[in-house]
Amino acid sequence: MAKKSIIARNQRRIRLAEKYAAKRAELKAAGDMEGLQKLPRNSSPTRIRQRCLVTGRGRGVYRKYGLCRNMFRQLALEGKIPGVRKASW
User: Fold this and answer.
1) Domain spans in the chain, listed from the N-terminal domain onward
2) What are 17-39's pLDDT values in tens digits?
3) Which band of pLDDT confidence, cut at 50, 70 and 90, is reported for residue 2?
4) 50-89 belongs to CATH 3.40.50.280
5) Which class for 71: exposed (0-12), middle (13-18), buried (19 or more C-beta within 10 A)?
6) Measured between alpha carbons, how far is 8 from 19 in angstroms, rounded to an integer?
7) CA 11/CA 24 separation, integer angstroms
8) What percent of the residues of the chain are helix, what percent strand, and what percent coil, each to the nearest 5?
9) Fold (topology level) of 1-49
10) What percent of the chain stands above pLDDT 70?
């Protein structure tokens, strides 16, 4: 499990990105690069990290499910993810 401070930091980045999304789009359309630089650094959507919804793990996360590979495998084997089953041929 990721540290709670890391998860909280990522949540703050998500909130900031949503708050400044309209202003960023407006400044980009106008071509005002200096105005963009004056915005908070964490308001950029590229600074948001894709994290597992269960554990907060930052690597090996499947976007479609929002789970890291470890939790995906565990939940799939338990039958808790609809439409997913182990392959056999």
Assistant:
1) 1-49, 50-89
2) 999 999 999 999 999 999 999 99
3) confident
4) no
5) buried
6) 17
7) 19
8) 55, 5, 40
9) Helix Hairpins (1.10.287)
10) 100
Structure tokens at 70: 């470890």
Q: Which two tokens stand for residue 68?
A: 């890291």
């630089």: which residue's tokens? 37
Greatest C-alpha distance within the chain = 58
Cα 28 from Cα 45, distance rounded (Å): 14
- For residues 26 and 65, is the Cβ–Cβ distance under 8 A? no
SS3 for 49-81, per residue?
CCCCCCCCCCCCEECCCCEEHHHHHHHHHCCCC
pTM of the model: 0.83
Let me know how long the chain is.
Answer: 89
Report the 10 Å Cβ neighbour count for 27.
Answer: 18
